[in-house]
Every structure is written in C-alpha cells, then in structure tokens.
Amino acid sequence: GEGSKFLVVGYASTDGSAESNQKLSSQRASNVAQQISDGSDGNTQAVYFGQTSRFSTEELPPNRVVEIWQVK
Predict the structure, then answer these.
(1) What is the pTM of this model?
(2) How far apart, in whole angstroms, are the C-alpha atoms of residue 11 and residue 55?
(3) Cα separation, 53 vs 44, whole angstroms
(4) What's the half-sphere exposure (Cβ side, CA atoms, 13 Å) at 33?
C-alpha cells in the first residue's frame, strides 16, 4: 500500500566459503529488490545474511531463498 516499506532478505547455505556466500546472498537480495521496486521511491531495501545455519548442507537447492518482509 501507500507508504509501505519492504526489506528483501537474501540467504545462502553453509556450502562454499563465507565470503562467496556473503556476495551471493547480497546479489540475490539486490536482484529481487530491483525487480519489485521498479525504480520507485526507495521503499524497498535489500539486506543479506550470507550463510546461515538455517540450511543444512544436505539440502542445498532449497537454500536459494529470498524473503520479502513488509516493515511498514
């Protein structure tokens, strides 16, 4: 709605190096934020958590996750 604000949160698995996963989750969040903001007035912010223990290395495909949080 009008005045809504969103965070686009990128994640990565623990597979690979922490540095590459930080970049990967950043790119993931930024790409989604660009797609949904459509050049609007800055109500969409990309953030990234890099690798987290949220995902196990046995289940790599489901870790390609971006969440969209409405914060206002």
Answers:
(1) 0.70
(2) 9
(3) 26
(4) 22
**CA gap 40, 6 in Å, rounded:** 12
pLDDT digit string (tens) for the chain, length 72 residues: 677 888 898 888 777 888 888 888 889 889 988 888 876 667 888 888 777 666 555 555 555 678 888 988
**How many C-beta atoms lie closer than 10 Å to residue 28's C-beta?**
20
Q: Annotate 13-60 with DSSP letters as a single string.
A: -SSS-HHHHHHHHHHHHHHHHHHHHTT-SS-EEEEEEEE-TTS-TT--
Compute φ and ψ for 16, nearest 5 degrees. 90, -175
Residue 48 β-bridge partners: 10
